[in-house]
What does this fold into?
Amino acid sequence: MLHALASTPLAEPAPKGINTDGVVSFFASKIAPILLAVLGVIFIGRASRGEISKVLTSSAIAIVGLAFIAGAATLFFVGDYLIELIFE
It folds into this structure.
């Protein structure tokens, strides 16, 4: 009886943190294509109604937004590299 109690773990180990790489890859592979497809359908619908200027404006805003997101991701990785370089 005592041997059986000694071999069972008392508690689960505490979680280490959030898997940010997994979260980012999930959004990049699952959520972003769906959002881009929805934007594409909206743009095609507007263009077929003759609202070309609104489509061009919306497309430009979407492209600038994607550039900001890509820039933020780049800064995240550059910052991580700099921190590792400084605190070796």
